[in-house]
Amino acid sequence: MRAVATSVIGLTLLAASAPALADIDRAWRNYQAVLSGTRTLAELTPEELREVAALDAQARGQVLDQRSPRQRCIDSELARLEREPSELALRTIDLKCSQRQDR
Predict the structure, then answer these.
(1) What is the DSSP letter of 38?
(2) Residue pLDDT, tens place only, 46-79
(3) Which of 1, 23, 41, 75 has the fewest other C-beta atoms within 10 Å?
(4) CB contact at 8 A, 59 and 7
(5) Does 25 share its domain with 54?
(6) Shared domain check, 39 and 86
């Protein structure tokens, strides 16, 4: 029963963020198959695995941060300013974050 409830929640959340997954039906079928034990994660392609992981995270109520490391850096720096950034501040932030790697 818990797995079904989790699956229903996951489908509802998935519908709200449909553009995040390339094939919602496939993700949903794979997610159910993994939950029921008819498929293992090792049997999934890398793309299917990403879709199932995204669906599982959504079912658990976790928000997926799909921003790039550079965009996360920029957002963090802008939030730290607590005011409207000047042109110089924007350029400085851009320079600081331009070399940001996935962390």
Answers:
(1) S
(2) 988 888 888 888 778 766 677 788 888 999 999 9
(3) 1
(4) yes
(5) yes
(6) no
Length of the chain equals: 103
In a domain, 103, yes or no: no
Distance in angstroms (rounded) separating the CA atoms of residues 56 and 64 = 11
3-state helix, strand, coil in the chain (%, to 5): 70, 0, 30
Domain presence at residue 64: no
Q: Does residue 6 fall inside a structural domain?
A: yes
Q: Which domain, by its residues, includes 36? A: 2-59
pTM: 0.42
The set of residues, in sequence order, having a beta carbon less than 8 Å from that of 17 and lying 6+ positions away, is: 58
Same domain, 75 and 47: no
CB atoms within 10 A of CB 74: 19
Residues 6+ apart with CB under 8 A from 100: 69, 70, 72, 73
Q: How far apart are CA 70 and CA 85, in angstroms?
A: 17
